[in-house]
Amino acid sequence: MTTAGPDRPRLLVLRALGLGDLLTGVPALRALRRAFPDHELVLAAPADLEAAAAASGAVDTLLPAAAPGRAVPAALAWRGPPPSVAVDLHGNGPPSHRLLSGLRPGRLLAFAHPETPEVTGPRWAAREHERERWCRLLRAYGIPADASDLALPRPATPSPAPAAVVLHPGAAAPARRWPAERYAAVARYLLGRGQRVAVTGGPGEDALVAAVAVPGTEAFAGGLPFEELSALVAGAAAVVSGDTGIAHLAVALGTPSVTLFGPVAPALWGPPPSPRHTALWHPGPPGDPHGRRPDPLLLRIRPEEVLRALARQEALTTTRRPTASGQAAVP
Questions:
Q1: Predicted local distance difference test score (pLDDT) of residue 331
Q2: Rounded Cα distance, 214 and 233, in Å
Q3: Residue 320 above 70 pLDDT?
């Protein structure tokens, strides 16, 4: 990230959410970077996303901001003159509108909401892919935005487990966590075929990682720093996970992935069409992505389906052999 000059106008973007949310917002952030090249682009987001924000190439400064769940922060530690432009990429308001309006920005770009009639942006569409949603918002204000502009540069750090299939059983909510015993079944099958297998988890998910890490796997518990996680994913043969941040990271790095969907359809959060990325989903009524139990649609996915999806990608994964640096080569 760059150091801002004292007279540089500032553009504030609110997206105080998780890693997957940040990565789906990268196309919009890059569109704003191009539209406002002379501005300092400040992203209000959790402090632990600073490295990921820097990897986007669009963000100058991260302003630490977070709230429990997916709530809007109560306040922002903004200092100095009001932002020249404020952009709400957090939600459709009104709390996020009011938080940004309270800073008295020169312009506020946001979706319209009946409780904040002063915001004259486009209408919110509930059944819209997250990447496209924020690009559509910007286009409504005359800012060109391409939802496919989501690739991240491959990290220079060597992978800690080159050419492994990475299994990530965790997610922010139990509704999006496929059962650990099914991940373990996938791990045992892959190990039996001589495949290297790594298991990852976020902070507080050590017990979940331990439940999946059958003998022969390599476990990475405690939540890897972004640089190390990015290197692991970039060098992986494939990533298997639920609808969570590491799935979006695999897409951004071009790593083959199998993503397991349940409460939310892949049409709203899934990968772009590509033979590299498989979205497994059994259609049905939408559920609560923040629910406290695994979603019934997610539970319809069996280990055999995951293994078949990995087998279909095998022609791709076998070409991603480690290079001398330990990184996997992209065909």
A1: 25
A2: 20
A3: no
Q: What angle do helix axes 245-253 and 226-234 make, rounded to 10 degrees?
A: 60
User: Residue 244 has what DSSP assignment?
Assistant: S
CB atoms within 10 A of CB 149: 16
- Please state the pTM of the whole predicted model: 0.91
| C-alpha separations of 114 from 74, 90, 92, 117 in Å | 21, 17, 10, 6
Contacts of 320 (CB under 8 A, 6+ apart): 163, 236, 237, 255, 256, 328, 329, 330, 331
SS3 content of the chain, % helix, strand, coil (to 5): 30, 15, 55
pLDDT tens digits, 219-252: 999 999 999 999 999 999 999 999 999 999 999 9
Least Cα distance to 115 among 101, 134, 129, 105 occurs for: 101
Q: Where are the beta strands (DSSP E) in 107-181?
A: 107-109, 165-168
